[in-house]
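Per reviewer request, we include the raw input and output of the structure prediction for the construct analysed in the revised manuscript.
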Amino acid sequence: MSRPLSVVVVFFAALFRLQAAPGVPAGFAFQYREGLLWIKVSTPQSARPLNFLLDSGAEVSVIALATAERLGLALHEPVSVKSVESSMTGFRTQGLRATANGVA
């Protein structure tokens, strides 16, 4: 039996509200590795970019608990997070402002 991992729930819509100036397409660079889309995300709380997996079918996005703590995010009520093969405990959070290639 594997030990459940703690994760932090971050609502994808709040994290990546794609807004661009009129006439400028909203977009960002990504890498396609192992059948998955990866994007580099910048946030004022981190000196280096974060690697995010873009899952267009997910209801919410998650980040590792250690990363959330390093970024100084406040943890709120616990929630159950289910993936294809497992379930784990996570926490709702807010306050992560991030950009992907300058798109907020």
